[in-house]
Amino acid sequence: MARESIGLSLNALIPGEHLDAHREHMQGFVDSGERRRRMGEHMEIHGRRRDGSIFPAEIGIGGYAVDGKLHVTAVVRDITERVESTRELERQRNVLELIMRHVPDYIYFKDRESRFTLMYDAVAEGLEYESADEILGKTDFALFERETAEITFASEQELMRTGDIQLRMEERLISVRGGHRSLTS
Asked: How far apart are CA 91 and CA 159, in angstroms?
């Protein structure tokens, strides 16, 4: 369709129900004196395929003058895959959030340096903190006595290095606040 679109008005690629809004945006572009603009960053826009089907789009427009007359070039991208991937990622994030909020186990995530990157308040409260915000970005060395932190750090680093999960490992956690807790992971 790209080759067939050269020389066409951008209106040919805009669904009928969006034409009025498109014309307003194009007039705003011309009136603004801008030379280029990326459309679709702050609102959802759509294009129309040759078969008439509608797709989510991203449009970049650029203006240039020839003999004092403004010409506009537009690049229209079909972003269907990006939109679908974003929706799927959001769905998975929602499922993860439901699991983490409702499963009674301590579920948290750490980065390669063993810093906490994601947890919910219930986990933090179980570790004697008021909220996850107090823990995020910290390592076990900031939360537990050194001996405890060295053991958990070594175990996590081994897991990340090999991918081998050690099940039924009992950990005795002694926090820097003086609390004791035993966990099985």
From this structure: 27
